[in-house]
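Readers of this paper often ask what the protein records in our data store actually look like. Below, we set out a record of this kind in full and without editing:
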Amino acid sequence: MAKKDNDLNIRMAEASLHVAEASQRDNAAMKAIAEDSKQVALNTSRDSAAMRTIAAMTMVFLPATFTAVSSHMHPPSPIGRPTLRFHRLSSGRVSSTFSPRTTKQWSPGGFGCMLL
């Protein structure tokens, strides 16, 4: 009976050893996953800061750019504002020219760009 108990205790100890070794491997894997998750969080934070900077720069420059471009995209007006015209060439390329009607007064878009 004692030998049977002793063999049973040895098998249980061996099984406990295998469980402990598997647990250590799982623990090492979880540590690696946690380190990777930490690195992803840091990179995401840096990317978020860069996106905020890009958004701020866009909010500053986009209205002035829109004003500058839209003031030159209107058809010729009686006051003589220069107009940007696009022409498709026979080669398929697009060429742009200003209309000959120019004036010495400042357009709103040009003035807005000068302020920046």
Observations:
- The radius of gyration is 36 Å.
